Amino acid sequence: LSFYGDGAADDILDSFFDEEKMQHALAPEIAALYRDDLAHGQNNCRILYHYLLLDKSLAGTSEAMHMHRSTIVYRLNRMKEQYGLLLDSPERNLHYLLCCRACLLRDARR
């Protein structure tokens, strides 16, 4: 049994993140991370999404991604270094979370 609420967030994001709007709404750090994911077959956007969705829980992210905790720590540190991610602000984290979700939705609809 499914309720509309299960997909409501995706529908809302979809309405805001069409191709043209997405270019302007994505945080530059997430846009760069996503481009590199596509170019190199990586899943950093998905890792960051789960990490933020699960209140920065390394254990939860490891479980969701089926990856070892130390791999998650390594990948997050590399993302912070490479893309200048700052994960110390709730507002910025929410923006990153929504941007990652929009990128993942875009992938799912390709």
Mean pLDDT across all residues, rounded? Answer: 87
Number of beta-strand segments = 0
Rg estimate, integer Å: 14 Å
**Into which percent range does the helicity of residues fall?**
over 70%
Report, as a whole number of angstroms, the end-to-end distance.
26 Å
pLDDT < 50 stretches: none
Structural class based on helices, strands and sheet pairing: mainly alpha
Order of secondary-structure elements: HHHHHHH
Q: How would you describe the shape? A: globular
Total helical segments = 7
Topology of this protein?
Layout: H1 5-16, H2 19-25, H3 28-40, H4 44-53, H5 58-65, H6 69-83, H7 90-108
Summary of the model, kept short:
The protein has 110 residues and is mostly helical. Helix content is 76%, strand content 0%.
